[in-house]
Amino acid sequence: MVEELPPQCSAKGCRAPAAWQLLWNNPKLHTPEYRKTWLACPDHRVSLGAFLEARSFLREVTPFVSSEDARIS
Q1: Across the strands, what pairs with 24?
Q2: Does residue 68 surpass a pLDDT of 80?
């Protein structure tokens, strides 16, 4: 049996629980309404957001409540 893990931060090597969702898209690849999601812990919200913002990919940052309420990609 495979144990399902709780949603975790998307930062490389981080396994902390997700607290934020960063919604983004690459305008060269995606339609304007399309969103991909990275999850972030409190420690990595700013660095992951800065990475996406530097590339003009970041669209929105919202609290992560539960998997049922998120669009995880």
Answers
A1: 36, 58
A2: no
> Under DSSP, is residue 23 helix (H, G, I), strand (E, B) or coil?
strand
**Helix, strand, or coil (residue 62):** strand
Token pair 């992560």 is found at 64
Domain ranges of the chain: 20-69
Q: What is the pLDDT of residue 4?
A: 75
pLDDT of residue 57: 97
Token digits for 1?
């049996």
Mean pLDDT in residue range 8-36: 95
Nearest to 63 by CA among 7, 12, 19: 19
Interatomic CA distance for residues 9 and 25, integer angstroms: 18
